[in-house]
Amino acid sequence: MAAQSGRAPRTPAYVFAGVVTAFAVLVAAVALTARQAAPPAIAEFAPQAVEQIKQTLDEQAPDVTPDSDGGTDGSRPSAPPSASPSPSAGPSAGPGASAPPAVEVPRVRQCVGSPPRQTEDPQSPPCVPYFDPKLSNGGATSYGVTKDQITVALPQQLFEDLSIPPKLVEFFNKRYEFYGRKLVLKPFQTAGCANGVPSPEKQRADAIAVQEELQAFASLAYCNANSADRAYYDALAEKKVISVPDGNLITGTEAAYARRAPYQWNVQAGVNVIMASTAQFLCSKLVGRRPAYAGGPQAQATTRKFGIIYTRATDGSVPDLDPLRTGLRSCGVTLTEVREDATADQTRNGVNAVVTMRNAGVTSLLCFCSIPDTRGKYMTAATGQGYQPEWIETSYGGNDLDNSYSGGNAPPDQSGHVLGLTFRNKLLPKQDMPWYWAVREADPTSDPQGNTYYASNSRYYQLLLLASGIQLAGPDLTPASFQRGLQAARFPNPGAAGPPYFQARVGFEGRRHVMSVDAAMFWYDPNRPGTIDPTVPGAICYVDRGRRFGLGQWTRSEPAFFSGPCL
To answer: Which CATH number fits domain 16-20+137-268+428-487: 3.40.50.2300, 2.40.50.140, 3.50.50.60, 3.40.50.300?
Structure first.
């Protein structure tokens, strides 16, 4: 838990670091340490014997597409490669740039699958040639980079198990090619969201200290500021420090990221994509049908009527609803809208907004709010008014997690009417999640429990994005080469959107700055055991086991919400 202090971070006395070199081992040995128990029927993802990759990235085949090894049709990955697989497509270092020479020694870091990717995680990047440590990596190629290390700031977060990030970093240092360097975490106590109240001035002070005192090349996600943390990330960009959050910033659109390129990135889809996808989802799946998942009088309506509540954050940020409005107009829908201003003293109770929706006959209510507002204000107010709409939720504000509504967090007469879109990877039992495999490989005795899952999962994906960019940048690591490497790479994506993981397709094509943009449909079941913590009832469940849709892929049909298996 972040200490609530107004002081800017100071360089900590301790540094989280991993071990750089791990010699090649046999398949059986890797299997003992990679994860506690390999998920069944997915031998395609098991680590292979050590290989030699004798082509540089510039020599690798340029015609491999994201669909070459499993696609959105749910096809499974191809069989494991032989000892000498064909290299996958990868980024070019740019015209005239020199790549590390091919080497004739066994790889220190094994590759997995065909085309080869870096680890068992199907979202890991394409492999790169082994870098001979006897070669020069250019030394201090950028601020926060030396010949030996890459400094990464770690803002401490609420409910985070601080023993997990060092284990994750140890995994990435061992399994990824960082060209003679290693990631070094520098944790600090944040001041810009003390007591849950964002302070733009303190966020900027934290960002300045990250650059000047921690001397960081990059920062992981900031503390929970209810999506009002743009001041921290914008100040980092001004200081030319990369940021890698995993969450929907209110102002986090692709246009905003592009304006601050190459410094701002995000694991999750931008708000512009969330809005446009939500419109397509509503038009294709819900518009023109009766509100089958509402309760009370709202369930008696013959057709759905849509409304939206959204909040302006304490820093003045407001989500851009234009992609949502425009998309809905194409299918004849005009939203009933209520905007409320977040207040530092938390006096807003949501009653006026809910009464407006009820009186307008809204049966299906979108809430682009933080989860404390959704469940604590608007759902509570709805119960008090005898109003039971369908709650149409998304990943925006954390409204798509088990513990968003479980454990008494939300009124039970409301939480049973939640459905919507999730832009996250499908949340599976921890033994089936890449973050858990990484922790167990670094420390076979570690077994994180309960809600530590969320922070550990989020930190893993932040580090996955960061590590992918560093690996694909090559030895000459700068923010510009980080961006160039990510946007030129074609991630293998084996089995994307299909069994057993139904994971999102990842990549940065089209000069994108977010890792994935597709979505799955979900509903919330308050009675099933939680996936994250089976001792607590309430779970996010996935339509068609988590089949995913990108923009333009939504077809007219009626989904099977609230029926069938949860995972």
So the answer is: 3.40.50.2300
